[in-house]
């Protein structure tokens, strides 16, 4: 692989491609995932095609970077990882990760992808800190981020409404 910082033993992180339209369409229109993104309406193929067409734009311009997590051995996409709310002045960004299929979780893909994006963020983007918002009930994500050194720095009470009920959300932070 050409990108040393984006390649691990199990996975590599790659840029979005036009061929990812069906994958992005499926993920963005999965109503079970909307609670994680505050989405409330579906995305059209046209809109997502425009998004993919512009996904080559620099993180300094669009304040976001979305990468596909692919298995090293098969090149099969297993998830996505995002840097969002990129703030170059304050040298920070938010971080989110999704492994698509429950059967692919707890196999080390998410942990390695998270490790790769942390190294990339600190080494290439020269960020000072990363943060993540994690539902209090999401013990898998809490363990994943804590194992990479993220620390809980606050609890936002009744922050997210899912299925008519409010849930608490932790704010996690990792400082270089």
UniProtKB/TrEMBL annotation:
SUPFAM superfamilies: Acyl-CoA N-acyltransferases (Nat). Keywords: Transferase. The keyword Chloroplast does not apply. PROSITE patterns: GNAT. The keyword Transferase applies. It holds the Pfam family Acetyltransf_3. Residues 11-176 form the N-acetyltransferase domain. GO terms for molecular function: acyltransferase activity, transferring groups other than amino-acyl groups. PANTHER family: GNAT-FAMILY ACETYLTRANSFERASE, SPERMIDINE N(1)-ACETYLTRANSFERASE. This is Diamine N-acetyltransferase. It comes from Leeuwenhoekiella aequorea. The lineage of its organism: Bacteria, Pseudomonadati, Bacteroidota, Flavobacteriia, Flavobacteriales.
């Amino acid at each position: 692989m050409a990108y040393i910082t984006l390649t691990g033993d199990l996975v590599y992180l790659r840029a979005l491609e036009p061929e990812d339209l069906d994958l992005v369409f499926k993920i963005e229109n999965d109503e079970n995932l909307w609670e994680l993104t505050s989405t409330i309406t579906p995305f059209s193929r046209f809109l997502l095609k425009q998004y993919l067409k512009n996904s080559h734009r620099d993180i300094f311009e669009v304040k976001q970077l979305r990468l596909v997590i692919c298995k090293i051995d098969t090149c099969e996409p297993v998830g996505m990882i995002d840097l969002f709310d990129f703030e170059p002045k304050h040298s920070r960004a938010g971080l989110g990760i999704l492994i698509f299929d429950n059967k692919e979780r707890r196999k080390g893909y998410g942990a390695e992808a998270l490790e790769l994006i942390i190294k990339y963020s600190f080494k290439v983007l020269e960020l000072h800190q990363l943060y993540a918002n994690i539902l209090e009930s999401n013990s898998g994500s809490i363990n994943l981020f804590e194992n990479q050194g993220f620390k809980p720095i606050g609890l936002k009470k009744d922050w997210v409404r899912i299925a008519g009920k409010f849930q608490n959300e932790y704010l996690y932070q990792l400082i270089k």
